[in-house]
Amino acid sequence: MAAESDLLVVGAGAKAAGLAAKVHAFNTLGLGPVSLKTVEATEVAASWKGRNGMTSGEEPLAVTPIKDIGFPYQSWREFGEAGEAIDDATMQFTWQRFMVARRRYARWIDAGSPSVRHRDYGEYLTWVLERARAGVEHVDGRVARGGNRVTPFGAFYDSTLDRMGDAALFGGIALYFVRGGVPANLQFVAVAAALVTLAAVLIVSYARARAEGLSLDCKVGIAQRAERILGLGIPSLFIGAGPDGLVLFGIVAILGLMAVITVVQRILHVYHVTRSQASAPAESRQARHTQARQLTSDVANPLRERNPQ
Q1: CA distance 267 to 249
Q2: Residue 165 is assigned to a structural domain of this protein
Q3: N or C of the chain: less Cβ packing under 10 Å?
Q4: How many domains does the chain have?
Q5: Least confident of 19-23, 90-94, 150-154, 192-196
Q6: Residue 57 CA to chain centroid, in angstroms?
Q7: Residue 297 falls inside a structural domain
Q8: Considering the entire predicted model, what is its pTM?
């Protein structure tokens, strides 16, 4: 059984980076031992980088990055004189130190310290978590992996429940439209949109599962599960279905279009990956033949020189 930690943080983002820096400082100063474990489902700072999080990564950071993981550097309020040492040790993880390490600090300052993107701040958080190691453990994968509780059946069961949830969600929306959720003149189109969206969503999931069955990564597309849930859930939370169900109808139609595009993206992705894999052995064979011919030539030339015809 894995050793217990003093602190457990689910999600390796800004808060985890701030805690990791402080725990690292505590332990290097001899004020510990304090232990921290962070668990991230996909990758460090996933919600900042635009690949696995909830943003595209291109959005500007709302505050200046100088307000970094150690800000406001007032640990003395809680720890007195020791707090000054803690803040001093934490200074090795500042935004400025990160930019200096990346050789971008002078250019950024000369440009007037402009706003940075979420993606840039995600790189900074990754940099911090890579260096704050004293007493800090990072666990990649789903939360279940933190306790070594992942099983093949568990993965299968989780995936099956996700598909059942998608079917219940869009099937329920279709039933809502059938029962008068939209004006009569739009009922057929709305129901068709819900069913097409349901089919496309299931094909999106199937395409990834089938690709992974071929040992291929297929986490591509503009409408993965997180985007679908947010796109449908957030507007519905605040305004419901809208007047005559038109808002819900519009959202379903957009999600359906995005799901269809995602299916195409995944098909093209797998096509290009498998095609490149298929061409690699042929290129390897050609390279070996070339090397063999060269070797033969290298051996034959001296023989010809010794035995001219």
Answers
A1: 27
A2: yes
A3: C
A4: 2
A5: 150-154
A6: 10
A7: no
A8: 0.49
